[in-house]
Amino acid sequence: MLGDPIQKPAGRGGAEGVGGAAHGGEQGDLGQSPGLGGTGHLETLTTGQMLLLSIGTSGGVAAQMAVLAVTSRRTGFRLRLHADPRGIGVRSIAAFAGWTIASAAAAQVVFIVSTRLASQAGQGS
User: Fold this and answer.
1) In a domain, 42, yes or no
2) How confident is the model at residue 55 (pLDDT cuts 50, 70, 90)?
3) Is residue 71 part of a domain?
4) What residue numbers bound the domain in which 50 lies?
5) Which of 6, 33, 45, 97 can pair with 37 through a Cys bridge, CB separation 3.0 to 4.6 Å?
6) Which burial class, exposed, middle or buried, applies to 35 when counting CB atoms under 10 A from its CB (0-12, 13-18, 19+)?
7) What CA–CA distance (Å, rounded) separates 65 from 60?
């Protein structure tokens, strides 16, 4: 629950609470999260914690947008939408976007292949 006090595991605290094997914890053990006492596992979040996380994240994005909008207005920047795309380099933008999409797709293929190879390798020594 949101109002529950944060309890640290016995024998662990400070930087040790975020540990892997090097910090005295089990491999992949995140320990107690700072703040609301979460466990580091998304599945164990309560509805209230999930709501707080989503509202806080959305509020942070809105605050950043507001700051950028105000400062860009003060500097004289005006966002103008043009219905006519001629003269803004659509071909060069499209060519660059094509290479960017191809690069991202290649990175995804590499990620999928390496993940499958790693999962089939079994336990390490």
Assistant:
1) yes
2) very high
3) no
4) 17-60
5) 6
6) exposed
7) 9
Amino acid at 35: G
3-state secondary structure the chain: CCCCCCCCCCCCCHHHHHCCHHHCCCCCCCCCCCCCCCCCCHHHCCHHHHHHHHHHHHHHHHHHHHHHHHHHHHCCCCCCCCCCCCCCCHHHHHHHHHHHHHHHHHHHHHHHHHHHHHHHCCCCC
Instruction: Count Cβ atoms within 10 A of the Cβ of residue 25 and give its class: 0-12 exposed, 13-18 middle, 19 or more buried.
Output: middle
CA–CA dist 7, 26 (Å, integer): 18
pLDDT at 3: 52
50 or 7: which leads in pLDDT: 50
- Longest distance between any two alpha carbons in the chain, whole Å: 66
C-alpha to C-alpha distance for 31 and 19, rounded to whole angstroms: 7
CA distance 93 to 1: 49
The model's pLDDT over 18-48, given as tens digits with 9 standing for 90+, comes to 444 444 444 444 445 455 555 667 778 889 9
Domain count within the chain: 2
